TrEMBL record:
<keyword id="KW-0676">Redox-active center</keyword>
<feature type="transmembrane region" description="Helical">
    <location>
        <begin position="12"/>
        <end position="29"/>
    </location>
</feature>
<dbReference type="Pfam" id="PF13462">
    <property type="entry name" value="Thioredoxin_4"/>
</dbReference>
<keyword id="KW-0472">Membrane</keyword>
<protein>
    <recommendedName>
        <fullName>Thioredoxin-like fold domain-containing protein</fullName>
    </recommendedName>
</protein>
<dbReference type="InterPro" id="IPR012336">
    <property type="entry name" value="Thioredoxin-like_fold"/>
</dbReference>
<keyword id="KW-1133">Transmembrane helix</keyword>
<keyword id="KW-0560">Oxidoreductase</keyword>
<feature type="domain" description="Thioredoxin-like fold">
    <location>
        <begin position="54"/>
        <end position="227"/>
    </location>
</feature>
<keyword id="KW-0812">Transmembrane</keyword>
<keyword id="KW-1015">Disulfide bond</keyword>
<keyword id="KW-0732">Signal</keyword>
<comment type="similarity">
    <text>Belongs to the thioredoxin family. DsbA subfamily.</text>
</comment>
<dbReference type="GO" id="GO:0016491">
    <property type="term" value="F:oxidoreductase activity"/>
</dbReference>
<dbReference type="InterPro" id="IPR036249">
    <property type="entry name" value="Thioredoxin-like_sf"/>
</dbReference>
Length: 229
C-alpha cells in the first residue's frame, strides 16, 4: 500500500493488514501535497549512488564503507516508521555494524509544518551531537503517532530531545532558531535532489544504481546490498 499525492495535505494514511502482515507502502509527494494510493518512485529505477550529494548529511556507519546507501524519509511518514523499526535494525546489524555499509540520511519533508520542524531539529542534532543522532532518530520514530496526531510539533520534539542522554536540548533548540534558514535550505536541497532522481515517495533508498521505494521486505534490501559487496 502506498500514499500518493492529492489535494488534501492532511489526509491520513491507512495501513492495510492482510494475513497479519503490514503491506509495504510509501507516502508520496509531487511537489505539492501528500495523499493515499498510487505508486512511488519507479521500482528499480536506474540512478547512480555516486551522484548523490552526501557532504554534510547525517549518516551512520564507517565513512569509508565500500557501499553507501542514500535514504530519503519524513519524520511524519508512517511507512518510514515501519521501515525504521522493522527493517533498519536488520540492515544495521548485518551491514552497518560490520563496516560494509554507510547509510546517509536525506530529507523529503512534505507532510506539513511538523515534518519541517522535525527536519530542522534533526539537522541541529547532527551538527551538535553527531554521535547521538541515531539514538535521537530512533526515539523520534518510536514516538511517532498518526500523521498530525500531536507528536512532532516543536514542544514535543524538545521534550523528547531532553530524554536522550548526551544531548543538551537547550543548545539544540538554540541552534534551530539561529540556523533555521540554513537548515531549511538543506531540507529544500534534499527535496530537489530527490526529484532529480525521480524519487517521489518516502521511504526511498538508492543502493548502487537502483531506487527502492516503500517499506519493502528486508530481503529486497538485502539482495540489493549483497549485489554491491
Amino acid at each position: 500500500m502506498n500514499e500518493t499525492i492529492g489535494t488534501n495535505p492532511y489526509l491520513v494514511p491507512v495501513a492495510v493488514v492482510i494475513a497479519g502482515l503490514l503491506i509495504a507502502g510509501a507516502v508520496m509527494w509531487n511537489g505539492n501535497n501528500p495523499s493515499t494510493g498510487g505508486e512511488g518512485a519507479p521500482q528499480g529505477a536506474t540512478v547512480d549512488i555516486s551522484d548523490v550529494k552526501t557532504d554534510g548529511a547525517p549518516f551512520i556507519g564507517d565513512e569509508d564503507a565500500p557501499t553507501t546507501i542514500a535514504y530519503w524519509s519524513d519524520f511524519q511518514c508512517p511507512f518510514c516508521k515501519q521501515f525504521e523499526i522493522n527493517t533498519f535494525p536488520l540492515i544495521i546489524d548485518k551491514y552497518v555494524d560490520t563496516g560494509d555499509v554507510r547509510i546517509v540520511f536525506k530529507d523529503l519533508q512534505f507532510l506539513g509544518p511538523d515534518s519541517t520542524t522535525a527536519g530542522v531539529y534533526a539537522r541541529a542534532v547532527w551538527e551538535l551531537y553527531p554521535s547521538r543522532y541515531w539514538p535521537w532518530r530512533e526515539a523520534m520514530y518510536e514516538a511517532q503517532d498518526e500523521e498530525h496526531g500531536g507528536f512532532g510539533d516543536e514542544a514535543s520534539i524538545v521534550a523528547l530531545t531532553k530524554t536522550i542522554s548526551g544531548i543538551d536540548a537547550t543548545k539544540v533548540t538554540q541552534a534551530t532558531k539561529a540556523n533555521k534558514n540554513t537548515y531549511e535550505t538543506m531540507l529544500a536541497a534534499d527535496r530537489a535532489e530527490a526529484g532529480s532522481f525521480g524519487i517521489s515517495a518516502t521511504p526511498s533508498v538508492i543502493i548502487d544504481t537502483q531506487v527502492i521505494a516503500g517499506a519493502q521486505a528486508y530481503a529486497v534490501f538485502e539482495a540489493a546490498i549483497e549485489a554491491t559487496l
